[in-house]
Amino acid sequence: MPSTAEERFMQQQGFAPEEPARLRWHSRALLFQPWIVGPSVLVAVLLQSRVLFFVLAAVLAWNTVFPRLNPFERFYDWAIGRRRGLPKLEPAPAPRRFMQGMASVLMLIAVLALSFGWRTTAYLFEGFVLLALAALLGGKFCLGAYIYHVLRGRADFAKATCPWSKT
To answer: What is the CA radius of gyration of the chain?
Structure first.
């Protein structure tokens, strides 16, 4: 099993073990998308914006269905990776796609709740999204990937990929 939080994060996302130099840039590159989505979600929550939630949900759904065409990763490759001579990002493995799909569904539920005036439901699902983003950005713990592994019958693996795991 991986030994550092960064290694556990990468395996949780569905990537094979990597050498330390590649691991560092790769894990940082994968966090590019949440660093863009996170503030956007925060703005959507503060404004209670159905439109912004819908756009974010649509983009994340796109990334789930067409992982090779993820606009965040293609932009990262073009604007950052190319200039630094880094390899292009690979399409997201299944756990990462599941996480994006899960976030998309949570945001769509928030859109529907806002549309029907169900404020409490909207706040609840917005809170789930914010909590998941905070865990990802603050602790390299991907709730969606964790759930993916548990649903696939790999609960022990999922637990071992948590940042606080001692295994």
So the answer is: 16
Residue 51: pLDDT over 80: yes
Q: Classify 163 as helix, strand or coil.
A: coil
| CA 65 from centre of chain | 15
* Tokens standing for residue 10: 């990468």
Q: For the residues of 50-88, what is the DSSP string, one character each?
A: HHHHHHHHHHHHHHHH-GGG-HHHHHHIIIIIHHHTPPP
Residue identified by tokens 């691991």 is: 23
Higher pLDDT, 26 or 5: 26
Tens of pLDDT, residues 60-85: 999 999 999 999 999 999 999 999 99
Helix (H, G, I), strand (E, B) or coil at 66: coil
